[in-house]
Design goal:
Elements (H helix, E strand, L loop, with lengths): L2 H19 L2 H6 L5 H8 L5 H10 L4 E2 L3 H5 L3 E5 L6 E11 L2 E10 L10 E7 L1
Length: about 130
């Protein structure tokens, strides 16, 4: 396991905490967003506002997953032909009303800067 993968659970947990509390400004300020998601958000083309609407429309109240969920993340290695380097991805089920949902958060490394760690890139139904 790489150093970046070893730090993933803590990074992902912090980002999920911010999502659960609806702290979108902190999501931008603390820099846990994938650069593409940040750019889309900053240019007003969607991004975080769409993620916020998606989570608000989902039935129930978003709650923190059990702590053990963060210790058992699965890493997926993806080959991206549009960028140099591989992307490592983590898909984490989000929880609503203390139960797992079919809404998931996608976290990815940045191929050009894997030392950035895992950044939120999307939230959607799987």
């Amino acid at each position: 396991m790489s150093e970046v993968q070893g730090q993933a659970p803590a990074e992902i947990r912090r980002t999920v905490e911010l999502l659960v509390h609806g702290d979108l400004l902190e999501l931008i300020n603390e820099n846990p967003l994938h650069p593409q998601l940040l750019q889309i958000t900053q240019t007003g083309q969607g991004g975080l506002p769409i993620i916020e609407k998606t989570t608000e429309r989902y039935p129930g109240i978003m709650t923190m997953p059990p702590e053990e969920q963060f210790g058992h993340v699965t890493f997926y290695e993806l080959r991206d032909r549009t960028t140099p380097g591989d992307v490592t991805q983590v898909i984490l089920d989000l929880w609503f009303d203390e139960q797992v949902s079919d809404l998931s958060a996608i976290f990815e490394t940045v191929p050009s800067r894997p030392d950035y760690g895992f950044r939120l890139s999307d939230v959607h139904v799987l």
